[in-house]
Amino acid sequence: MTKELSRNERIKEASTYLRGTIKEGLREEITGGIIDDDAQLVKFHGMYLQDDRDLRAERGRKKMEKAFSFMIRVRVPGGVCTPEQFLNMDHIARTYGNGTMRLTTRQTFQLHGIIKSNLKATMREIDAALLTTIAACGDVNRNVLCNPNPYQSHAHAASLALARALSDHLLPRTPAYREIWLDGERIVGGEQEVVEPIYGKTYLPRKFKIVIAVPPSNDVDVYAHDLGFIAILDNKHEIDGYNVTVGGGMAMTHGEQNTYPRTADVMGYCQPDQAIAVAEAVVTVQRDWGDRVDRKHARLKYTIEDRGLDAFRAEVEQRSGVKLAAATISNSQYVNLLWGTSAPIG
Amino acid sequence: MNSSPIPNTAPFAEEEIEILNRVVRLASPTQRAWLAGFLAGMDATAAPQPAGGAQPAEPLTILYATESGNSEQLASDIAKAARKMGLKPMIVDMADLDVAMLASVRRLVVIAATWGEGDPPARAIRAYGELMGEGAPRLDGVEFGVLALGDTAYAEFCAIGQALDARLEALGGKRVAERVDCDLDFAESAGHWIETALKALAPVEEAGRVIAVDFGAKAASSADLGPVEAEITELIDLNSSQSEKETIHLELSFDGAAPPYKPGDSLDIYPENDAAYVDDLLQAAGLASDAALRAELTKGRDVTTLSLKSLESYAATTGHQEAKALLESGDARAWIAGRQLIDLLQFFPVALSADQLRQVTRPLAPRAYSIASSRREVGEEAHLLISAVRYQSFGRGRKGVASGYVADQLKKGQRLRVKLRPNRHFALPAPERDIIMIGPGTGIAPFRAFVQERRVTGASGRSWLFFGDRQFTHDFLYQLEWQDALKDGSLTRMDLAFSRDTPEKLYVQHRIWDQRYDLIDWLDNGACFYVCGDAKAMAKDVRAALVRAYADVKTLSVEAAEQAVNDLDREHRYLQDTY
What we know:
The complex is a heterodimer.
Chain A: H1 7-14, H2 22-27, H3 36-41, E1 47-51, H4 56-59, E2 68-73, H5 83-96, E3 101-103, E4 109-114, H6 119-128, E5 145-146, H7 156-169, H8 176-181, E6 210-213, E7 227-233, E8 239-246, E9 265-270, H9 275-289, H10 300-307, H11 309-320
Parallel strand pairs in A: 5-6, 6-7
Antiparallel strand pairs in A: 1-2, 2-4, 3-4, 7-8, 8-9
Helix pairs in contact in A: 5-6, 7-9, 9-11, 10-11
Chain B: H1 14-26, H2 29-45, E1 58-65, H3 70-84, E2 87-93, E3 107-113, H4 125-132, E4 143-149, H5 159-170, E5 174-182, H6 187-201, H7 204-207, E6 228-237, E7 247-254, E8 266-270, H8 275-285, H9 291-300, E9 301-302, H10 308-318, H11 321-329, H12 332-336, H13 341-347, H14 354-359, E10 362-363, E11 367-370, H15 375-378, E12 381-387, E13 390-393, E14 396-399, H16 401-409, E15 415-421, E16 435-438, H17 445-457, E17 463-469, H18 472-475, H19 479-488, E18 493-498, H20 508-514, H21 516-524, E19 528-533, H22 538-553, H23 558-570, E20 574-578
Parallel strand pairs in B: 1-2, 1-3, 3-4, 4-5, 16-17, 16-19, 17-18, 19-20
Antiparallel strand pairs in B: 6-7, 6-15, 7-12, 8-11, 8-15, 9-10, 13-14
């Protein structure tokens, strides 16, 4: 029995690679909102449509629609930006946002209270600051985190480089972002052109989060993410390779029995130059195996739970051409890799 | 047949023209031919009239420059009185004046309102400029008199009437009646002036006649209904609770039928003064215990406006040396700016008698607000949109008298007095004609009436609205209604300008410029262009933007583009209701 795909799957399918009618919606001056389907799609562009709940009660009486505005989330792999970029974001937050700039636990900037008529100007200024918001939200690989403190570990530079490389490699390739926000020309490709070689037309079933942990600290909380890389150092303190974890995630839906928090499994050990191939394979297996019927059951952790770690590992190895080694190397380089203990894993 | 075959320049009073139009409009060609012949024959066979009727009546040109309709009403009063004096009056709206024709006039009465900071009424700007300019004709031998209307609350009180009075003389005219400058309570002084002026202008044998200008009779005419009571059935501050602004949407219902208003008309509100303010004033005057006076001041006197005139009468009646010194110093005009009567009493304290206090006040004038509804849509109701004026000056919180009354004193269920103030210069055109409406802030009010009217009547003309305010999220007045109007087609387009949402302030004139190609296209198609709202800056900026739009879209010189906009004026397609 095939069940009906979730509504978001149909929206993605019909969106022609995340375009939808966002462009047209931005021209509707009379409303501060956008239509529901586009509200789902703009997440892939790094923003959420919100409204001020405190004002909901009075709005109708005052003959006004909900007090809509947008939250914009930037993509900053490893949480590293230049001082100029920080100042630019500060300026943008004051100019177009509600005057607040939030630095999040997922190592990025969030701006709140941006009204629709200012969206494009905000996005252009973010672009001019050499930052982007693409895939900061949505059913795609989100911002990639690593240890934030370069003074704590010699390995920080290498892990940051991997975070950036993973982030770039797994970005959506659709030109929609440039077309809609930066007035880019729409490039009409041939019918055969593959727009999204990794994601395909419907992207992932659900959001997807990657982190990299570097000794001595698990400040990225590696077991709580879809995909984790635990750096293991050699005796020169260089990164020897990574224990690869899959299927973590803390979210559950209250009252829904088939949702639960889950710590990630360690799937195996890979060399630094194999990490991207492994990550891509994990993403595409989840793309194909993940649950597209029930969005509350669509994260990678449920795929692993349903299919079993061994089957998942075998498929990843087959697609990536990487034979993962056993994760036998001790995690003793870490303090508190698991919550509250330094117990070994594997 | 044209709906108004008798032009409003015809030598009849406004209501007479309306009656004639009612008959002639519906008359068949045969009926009109019969009427023409009958009227021609009637004069030929008429018996000689007892007093002066043997000679043809002497023509009198009555020229008026009006903004709120007062000058226009006076013009028609004068015409009525003039006819009794054996004169043949012709009323000319300054908006339609061909300045060159003044040279052929023998008797001229001018009723000129001064607006804002010493400006002519918007509709009179062109003719006023021509008359004051080098191209004005010589008026040698023209007998004239000027009646000036104004508001002593403004520094340039009656400046336009004064300037015209001097100009007519400079052009060779012969002043036969001294100018009178009237304040808001003009009825009595205007009545006296009309009597004097007409005596001076009338043919010799008629000048001895007694005429009566009965302003009380106006209330009986259909065009000018008296004040009525209304009940407040809804009172909503339309701005969000996070807005700095406070714009009250007021819904009024009436015991019987609503005043017979049309879209574009205004309603006068008869306000009452703020109780705390009146208390402060009585306290300062040493009259705190006079309850009767308190009631009189609260309901009937303008106790806030501080003008040179009130400063002068204060100095005269109290003999206060410092107040006198201020007047003599020449700094009085600067001193009264931003101050009110209470400041005068507190700054130059002296115990006053009730009469002395009355003397420095004037009658409390009603305040007109554009009606924001169409009777066809809301039935026997009238809706108003009122911005609460609040500000600080000289350490005291101030508020607008009428808007403060509405915002702070009135509640749902209470009653107030209102009076219809028709504005036939701001009416909807024929249903098939397109309209462009520029209405930032409370300027949106009459356009809500326009769109309601056009929705209910199924008008085929397109409607395009420009609105602006401070913030999209917190100040978008009637947003949900405009969304519905766009959906049901009663509104074709809407362009917005919110000044506080972007680093560069955006105003309606910027949106006019952005949309200039479509806008000029609509105007070429015959659209009417309406502007409502702030007179000080917005109305001028909008007009300038339209001139630039014409110049750019049609590759015209600035002069030619100005001419294009002036042509809209002349065709009564550029219509303004500003304040």
